[in-house]
Structure formats: C-alpha cells, structure tokens
Amino acid sequence: MLELKHISKNFGRHQALKDISFKIPAGKITGLLGPNGAGKTTTMRIITGILAANQGQILFRGQPVEPRDWHFRFHLGYLPEDNPLYDFLTPHEYLRFIGKIRRVNHLGANIQRLARQLFFADQLSRPLSHLSKGYRQRVGLAASFLGRPSLVILDEPLSGLDPNQQQKVRQFLLRSKKTILFSSHILSEVQAICQQVVIIHRGKIIASGPINQLLQKPSLILQVKGATLKAIQTVLAKAHIAIVRHQKQGAVLTVELTSQQPLNKLQNTLWQIIRRQPRWQLLQLKTSRQSLETVFQQLTQ
Amino acid sequence: MKRFLAFYQKEMLFLIRQPLTFLFLLLAVLLNNWLSFNAILLNQVATLQPLWQNLPFFFLFLAPLTALVLINEERQNNRQEILKSLPLSEPFVLGAKITAAFSLLFIIILFSFPLAAGLFWLASPDKGVVLGGYFAASLLLLAYLLASFFFATLSRHNLAGFFLGFLFLLGDDLLSQEFLLLHFPKLGPWLTYLSLQTHYQHFTAGLLTLADALFFLTWLIFFWLATVIIQESRRQ
To answer: Which residues of B are less than 8 Å from A141 in CB distance?
Structure first.
C-alpha cells in the first residue's frame, strides 16, 4: 500500500530520521514502535504531509507521491498524538466539517455509523469542550476513519482511554479491516492488534517485519531462591545480562533475562554465576517465547 | 464550493461563539454610527464623507484582531496538525478564513446603511459617490484583512503578529496625512501616494481611476501570495 524509501529528516543539526525504509502492507495493521523521541511522530507527519522529508521517496500503490500535494491527503485519515479538536463545535459538527472537506458521500449515515461503532452516539450534540478525554479520543478516531480512507495513521490512539474503552477501540480497529499505521507505548496492545511492527530507535529502523517472526527468538526465565533483586542485578550486569522483567514471591525471585549472547552461552554463564553464590538456590532456568516488550527492550536499551 | 462553505461555516461558528465578538462588533457599530451621524449633522452637507473617514480607524484595530483570532484558533492546542493533514490547499484555507473575517467585519459597513438611507430621505446625495464609498470601504476592509493575515502568519507569537499588523496599518494611515505634504514638500507626495488610504480617499470622493484600482490590486495580490508562501514554508 505505502512504502517509505530512504527517508531522512533534519531539524537544524539534529537528524530526526536517518534513511528509514519500510512498507505498510494493504489491509494490515502495522505498529510503529520506539522510545520517546525515536522519530515515530516525525515519520507519521511526513506521511501526512505536515512535514517535508529532506531526502527519500514515498510510494503509494507503487507510484511515487508527494504528501504535501493536498490531493494525496484524500487517501489518508490521521489521528495526531494529542488529538486536537475544535472545542467550539459539537462532535456532529466536527465530523460533518471533516466529512465535507473529505467529500464523503452519505455523510449523516456515516457519522451515525461511526458514532455507534465507537460508542459516542449519545454525545453527538454536546460541545466537544464538555466531553471527557475518552470520548474526545473516540471522536478523533471517528474523524480519521470518516470517508473510508485507504490508509489510517493513528498516533497513540489508546492514550487517555480506560481498559474498557481500549478494548472497544481495539475491537473497532480489528473489525475495520483497514490499512493502519499505529503507534503506541502499550506494547501488549500492539502485540494484540498489529500484524507487523516497525521498531524505530534514534531515527533508525532497528527491526521490522511480521510480529510472529520478531517474537520467535526465545528469552530466558531464571528462578532463584534467596537472592535480592539488587544483588542479582549487580552480578548480571557485570556479565552484560539485562533483566527485562522481575517478580518476587516470598524468597523466590523470578527474572526474565535478555542478552546479546547466544542462548546456550547465556545459559552456561548463568550456571557459573549462580554456582559462585552460595546463598542462592537455583529453582528453574528455562527458555520462554519472548513478549514484544522483551524484544523492544532488548533492541532499544 | 461545498468544501469551501464547510470551512467558512466552521470559521464563522468559531467567531460567533465567542462572546467578545459581539461586544467588539456592537461597540464598533454604535461608535461608528454615532460619530458619523454627529459629523453629518454638524457639517449640514449631504455626504457620507464622515463615515468613510471613520471606518478605517475601526478596521485598523479590528482587522488585525480578527486575523489574530482566526490564526490563533489553529495554533491553539496544535489544531493545525489536523488542518494540515486534511486535503486542503493553503490558498483554500486562507481564502475561507479571510471570507469569514470579511463577513464579520462587513457588519459594521452593513449597519451604516440606515445612515445612508437617512441621508437619502433628508437630501439628495450623489448616488454614484455613495456607492463608490461603499465599494471603497469594502475594498479597504479586504486589503486591511489581507495585510493583517500576512503579519499574523508571519509571526509565531500571536500578540506580536497583532501589533505588527496594527503598526503597519497605522503607518499606512499616517502616510496619507497632510502633514507629510506640509513638512516634506518634495518627498511628501511620493510617500502619500504609497499609502492605501490615499487611494481609498480617491474612491470615496467618487474618483475611480485605473491607478488607484491597480494600487489596490497590487496590495491584495502581494499580501495574498506572501501569506500563502509563508503558510507553505511552515511545512518544511
């Protein structure tokens, strides 16, 4: 559907994006992940034409496009990170405005359908300034889907939503069958929604591909009795092993580990470390399928 | 056209849902009509010249203020991010905003019609001059708005944009004053010619010349293009 080729963006001397290339396949939800300041929002702004890239090309359905050309933006729906809305309008007026600008047919019916699907049909006549953040977020989401755009770009669409609302929005996104580029800090949500991910760090793409492929590499789970988290952290750090997650139940400490070392070498290193600690009792050392969180931390730390 | 009307409607809703809009408009309409009516009564001449002289002073303040409010509307809470992601060109957005601002401030001109009607009832003023005056006042409002939008767009700081616009229009007004001709006999006529007000005064006196029309047209085209270029450069 959309392909970014060798995109670079500078803000003065700061290089926000460094030669990034990735594809957004049609009909799939692509997650754009990265720590704060990694370049996610800049990437989205370049696709929507809000910013211009210093270098590179964008292909839409195989053809080069210029996102700053306003005609191209008929194909896009966009929900910015902070979801700015015109507070002096009601959701109905706002969606009507967006729909008319996008030349949406059967606008009234479309607004009603989206309002029902996103559960704010009873709020359509209230001023946007009176709505809670959850409702506002859903109105913004409805606006980005109005007119059936070919590609929907959502920057942190789940922020400000409670777990129930997140569930509803997740259902909506999955049912929509649209091509979506989605950024979020809630990695479990990305794992649940997206079919493929692009991980961006310091302006560079450090991993991309179908989510199943990324999660194939297993991680190590270590269960020890008699060790404190601080002590285990100190010892493991010396061997360049990082703790991704930890859980303590009584005297038993369970940690999920990550390292650049191969799995068998890592296991040997851990055996040796634990043997040197007389008070520690090894209960379990096993491999586990990695979560997206583990992969993300491994790649961005 | 439907898209333009939708955008225009959004701008108008924004303006009319601000309580201060009505306060400023009411004050401007009342003050303008009262000052103009008094001057017409004092002069005992069947002309709307006092009205044409007063209107620029109201526009001088209200045009930069309206431009500021409409530009700030998008800057507030980063709403321009939504606007810039919509299939809209910069001239389209500027056109809709200027049309909304013009419609609002045209109310001041519109509410001076009773004054003109009263004048026609009491005496027989020259119809051509009165019509020319209304045409000139509308053109002046449009020209002031374009300059105000240019300065509001130029500055990223809202108040600075307002003051730049206000000072520029005030400077333009001062250039048309007679003291320049008295104190600078050689340079004065040139400076006076550069003022939009001078050409406006020709129109309101019933003199429709090509030179005045071209001056207005140049002003409008210059500020229109300059504002569009600035808006487009903000996407870099």
So the answer is: none
Instruction: Chain A: give the shortest CA distance to residue B85, in Å.
Output: 5
pLDDT tens-place string over residues B73-126: 888 778 888 888 899 988 999 999 999 999 999 999 999 888 888 888 887 878
Using pLDDT thresholds of 50, 70 and 90, give the confidence band for residue A260: low
CATH architecture of the domain A218-300 equals 2-Layer Sandwich (3.30)
Q: Which residues of A touch B2 (CB under 8 A)?
A: 100, 103
Say whether pLDDT at A171 is over 90.
no
> How many domains are there within chain B?
1
Taking the Cβ of residue A115 and every Cβ of chain B, the question of whether any pair is shorter than 8 Å is answered with: no
Domain of residue B54: give its range: 2-233
- The DSSP code sequence of chain B is -HHHHHHHHHHHHHHHT-HHHHHHHHHHHHHHHHHHHHHHHHHT-S--HHHHHHHHHHHHHHHHHHHHHHHHHHHGGGTHHHHHHSS--HHHHHHHHHHHHHHHHHHHHHTTHHHHHHHHHHS---HHHHHHHHHHHHHHHHHHHHHHHHHHHH-SSHHHHHHHHHHHHHHHHHHTSHHHHHH-TTTHHHHHHT-HHHHHHHHHTT---HHHHHHHHHHHHHHHHHHHHHHHHTT-
The CATH code that applies to domain A2-210 is 3.40.50.300
Percent helix, percent strand, percent coil in chain A, to nearest 5:
40, 30, 30
Beta strand A151-155 with A63-65 is unpaired
Is residue A256 within 8 A of residue A283, CB to CB? The reply is no
Contact B14 A88 (CB under 8 A): yes
- C-alpha distances in Å from residue B122, one per residue of A135, B32, B51, B111, B129: 60, 20, 17, 18, 17
Contacts of A70 in chain B (CB under 8 A): 86-89, 92
Cα–Cα distance, A178 to A172 (Å, whole number): 10
Residue pLDDT, tens place only, A90-141:
999 999 999 999 999 899 999 999 999 888 889 899 999 899 888 899 999 9
Banded model confidence at residue B149, pLDDT cuts 50, 70, 90: very high
List C-alpha distances in Å: B194 to A154, B150, B207: 51, 18, 17
Chain B contact for A80 (CB, 8 A cutoff): yes
ipTM over 0.90: no
Residues of chain A with CATH 3.30.70: 218-300
pLDDT in tens, B68-79: 999 888 887 788
Chain-centroid distance, C-alpha A230: 31
